[in-house]
Amino acid sequence: MANDTVNLTEMSDVSAILRLFEEHHVAPTFDPVPYLSRLAELLETETENYLKMDPDPFDDRNPSRNPNCSFGHMLKIIFKKEIFMQKLVGDYLRDTYWTRLGISTRDSRELNTAAARLVLDLMPGLEVSVVFQDTEGLINRLFSWAEKGPEPLQSYATGLLAAAMELQDLAANFRELNAHLAPLMLKRLWEIQKRCAEEKKNDELGKIKRFSKFSSDQPSTSSKTPKNTASSKSRASSSSKVPKDEDAELMPGPEPADGASDKGKLPKNNKVKKFQGRIKGSKERKSGNASLNGSAMNDSSNSSWAEMESYVIGTYQMHPLTDSTRQILILRYLTPMGEYQELLVHMFEQKALDLILNYIDFDETQDSRLSFEALKYLGALLCHKKFAIEFIHHQGLHRLLEIPRPSIAATGVAMCLYYIAYCEDAMERVCLLPDHVIQELVRYALWLLECSHESGRCHATMFFGTSFQFRIILEQFDAQDGLRRLYNMISTLSILSMEDASDLLDDDESHAARQTVRHVCAALKRYFEIHLAGKVEHLQRIRVREMGGSPHPSTPPYKAIKLNADQIIDLITTAQELLPFRASWSPVNEFVSLGGIPLLLQVIAISYLWNFTGRAETVRSALDVLAVCSVSFRVQMLFCDRIQIPDDANAVGINILLGAAEGDIVADPEVQRAALCVLIHCVCAPVHRVGGSVGRFNGSAKRRSVASRTSEEVLNQVWECVRSHNGIMVLMDLLSVKTPITDADSIRALACKALLGLARSENARQIMGKLPLFTSGQLQVLMREPVLQDKRQEHVKFQKFGLELLEQVSGRIKSNVNEFELSLAKIHKADVVAQTRIQFNEKQLLQLIHQHLLSKNMVESASILMKEAGLPPLPLKQASSNFPPYRATGNTPSTPSRTGRVNSQGAVALPSTPVAVPSTSTPTQQMGIIKVNLSSRRLRPGMPSPGPQPGVNSQHRALQKVTNWDSPTTMNKSLGAANVSTGETSRGVSLDAIVTEYLMNQHALCKTPMVTCPQFDLFQPHKCPDAKSKNTAPANFALRVQKRAIHPRFGGLDGARMDRKLVYSRFRPVRTFRNDSETFTCCAFSPCEQFLMIGNQTGELKLYNVNTAVEEATYQCHENYLFNIEPNWTGDLLLTSGMYRPPYSCLWAVGDFFDMKYSFEEEEYVEFSKTVQDKIVGTKGETATVYDVATGKKLLSLTPTTSNNYSKNRATFHPSDELILSDGVLWDAVSGTQIHKFDKLNQSLSGTFHPNGLEIISSSEVWDIRTYHLLRTVPTLDQCQVTFSASGDVIYAVHLEEESREEPMYDSSFKTLDAGDYSSIATIDVKRCIYGLCSNKYDTQIAVVENSREFNTPSESIVRLYDVGRLRDDEDVGSEVEEEEGDDDGGASENSDDDLEMLDELVNGGGDEDGIDVDIDSSDSSDDGQFGDSDDDDDDDDDDSNSYFGSSDEFDEELFSLNADSNSSGSSST
Question: Which among 1331, 1344, 1326 is positioned nearest to 1411, based on CA atoms?
Fold first, then answer.
């Protein structure tokens, strides 16, 4: 073993030592102490080198994360040896190690000391929770050693306890032991300080002689000593005991000398008032430090790193153990103990404050690391308000500001300043200190913003963010150019660079940079909010003085200004009203000049790529800063400028704000609300601000355009920018948001308020007025009830803004201030009524029926009813006893109930058949209201209206049912009073009266009621026919044909529309094309109409004969999924588009051979021009490219300045080929000039031209090309691919919904609409997913690609050919049944009856799935009878059974099921 020991002292390779350990540790007499000691020596050497690199003292991450750190590399090697680590922690720290091995002659203390020393050296890279887990009695042994153990084991155990107590669970489990040990540790520190003070006094003369350079400093030191002793107790520090570094240990810090101070003092220090006493000496020392730091590398300087080492990074030596290290280990243990309230009493008893003040005095300690550990302990104690106040009272802040910089102790000062700022009471006392102290405090903190340690910068930033609420700190911050320094902290970060420098950062650096951005944004938020409060207070005081009033006293500068979110919003609104338009507000102006607004917008945009817990807080703080700055019109104009972000070179600030409001950047409701607030402050700003009506033309010509703008012009620019970047669509989507449920109501309210401000723009208001949100009553539906009942207060705000928005869009001017409150009451009342469950006594209804039977002389039926129902005999005068009276309608509007019943005391009931009546705006036309006229003369159709009765208002002559019944006594009194006032006798309630009034109310809802009406049907809603012109074409087709001789060409007005509705509601399947091996994806008719071209998912193009359904040819066009086929008119050229693999599109020459003419590698979709097919337009993303058909050369490339980013953008030519529409942008096809960008109101479809050349259809929106206005919205076309008939007068619409990104989900029906007025004709359900549809050039046939609902099932893929305008007859059904027999695509539906015959099964949708269902829109009353004949001409269509259109009888009885849909109106009125 002796040889091994000698060898170990010469070994420097850790791996070799560990290998040697593994070879010998199993021996019974193995002594591990030499191995542990040698490893500890090597680790301590590397630790010393690591600390000289000046790492961040608060960075507790593993040093091995730095690949260039040899200390971390050594730790990795040791940690890989699991056997060694288990022995070290589990065995060598036992005090019975040798006894357990049977060796009782050896003491384990030496082994325990070596092991504890090594574990303490390894602690920077160890996981503390793992080290102290499942160790039997280790913590108790450490407590015992720390209290009574010999040195150095006692200190090592204290250091290990310090690491263990960082874990809160362990600290809580050993609370009693900590309460016992903490006071002992404080006493031990006082003892060490006392001994060190004595040693220092003995060595003082020797130090002065050795370093003659500082001999001139002694008088200054001695003259200052009485002041120090007068202010605090004596201070002591540790002295060195290391022989090998004796010079370094005995090297004192630079004492303040006149020569040194003058040599290194900065010029600005001469201009600042010096502290009295200690502060003055501190400045002189810091000047001396600067002199030494600046001259350390000069050849003429006699200073060295040995002289400055203790001042900058301090000393830390584990063996031999120094007093300085002993104190450091004790302070590390006390630091986690300082946070516990129950131990605070011991801290005061042992005078911990005086102890700390001694440690942070560099005149005595001259050791930066020892001072740093004391500052960490101080930071833990400053969490307690009482201690923080005591610290300020004992001039502790003065001591902190004396600590020299740069040093690791200065980094600890940053943490202490943050904890002081966190205590409001302590900060109030700080603000009461002299001005020069506050000035020095801010100067020190500003220096920390630029120090080398990340933690120091972070704590300094948080200090300012917390202390800005004190106005005196804010003023000093501005006086010392603090905003620029705060801005520079993030402006220089690599993660915000537009270059690729951010890719070179590792994870730790990126995370640190993001945390910096987070803290700076939070500090800027507080900075601008407090400035805003001060500015608004100043403006309000001026306004009050101008009005002759007395302003309220302002907040003292030493008191904190506390603001919540609602107060800040009110302050911003007030500032926009009172602040002159061109007023200079220095904080915002300076921030704008620094480039802070674009930088914060970059932070918001780039944060989308970040992934850390503080991302939402960072974005929210940045948005709050922008909200305050938006008071200035210059900031609002900056929002409309382009912002450089990595992914989008054309992004503008408004676009980023809209993305944040939509939740695309961060899916956090707080971020969404913050972004909406910024938008609200921009779009809801006053149109006419103070001093904003007249432009100024002073200054240079470059700035004249900005300076000359008026407030209205700036606001119009903001409105236009929001609208052009799809702000209407984003805000409207937010109106219907439902998640998260706790924040949905507030988001709705803010979005509605933003829309209200945007609606002041004429262009935006015109678009909103055509949207279903306003035309179809969707906004009123959203206003009925909140998403969450607990958020009703937010919902009331939404209702208020919604009513104002409706008023703004409709153009009405509110006549009464209380109108909103009345409308809100109506909404709440309607909500209550709608949720009320109406109940009534059924026996009373049976009594009415019994009375009605008696009145009709059906005595026997009446008696049977009375017997079976057990009815009591009905009194003669039931009106005054059993039934409540009806009351005249008052001024308060009543809310109708959807049910026709009354509560249990009433006897009024409606027929059970539901009645669909369109609602109108008049109260007398509400659906479901029963009005009963109880006058002696019942108003009948055709009778003159009686004159007003005395005492009865003529407007309120109609009597309505009451909803709140009174007591019987009250009813009798009210009835008697009514009889006296009217002079009439009340009649009893009868079933005849109820039914008559019910039908009268239906008749009152007719737009053009007639006096003479046929008999009313109780089971069908009544509607008088609309007024028609004499030249209007008949609804019946036979009569229209007959009338064509009188009114050519279509038999009268609207004849063509009626013909189209008749023809394009009938489709007869005539032929099926199927292939069992592929899935069909698209189709197109050949120009000769002889072939049908069909594409499949493998990229093949198949030609089928239309007449025989035989496959004629197959061509391989693409490698995957062919989704578009377009032949030219002559048939010699063909365009195809595929997916997934280039070339995505190709042009083929069709003739004797099928050859590729050109390939378009990147174009995702291509199509020919319309008038002269000599050009091709291709689409790739938002870019459209025009090619020449003859040469294949690129003619134009059209990329919009602001992209709409439609997911299914397809560029297309205008019918005249003069315009191109791509990504919602209109282009000149000749010059390539961008003409206009249409507002984006849907996410998918960019739009297509109407064949008339005047309109653009984009999903459900129809735009006017001439005025760029939104003409109407057609809900039927929402998210539908549009195909026009060859004549251009009918639209085929197929809905395509992207259910997931991987696989689209297709609809199983297509719709036909009239292209003239966009009215719905029919909806044809084919019971399969529709992948494509095409029409031939004669409009006589259409082909539909129909696939099964399961993707990638070739056996269910067909293309079906339909005849347009023909019905299926029995022969067609029978032939198709034979043709499809044996196929798997048929099957009975759920509603089929097995006992029915085959024809009935087919009629009802059973048997074969090839049956199709047609829903015909019957919203137009003029078309109600166009499919059937009247009673007078039943024979007119008997000869039409084989006609082109088929007979009406076949239509009613065959396969088609006609479902009248009164709610599927084709479009919204313009």
Answer: 1326
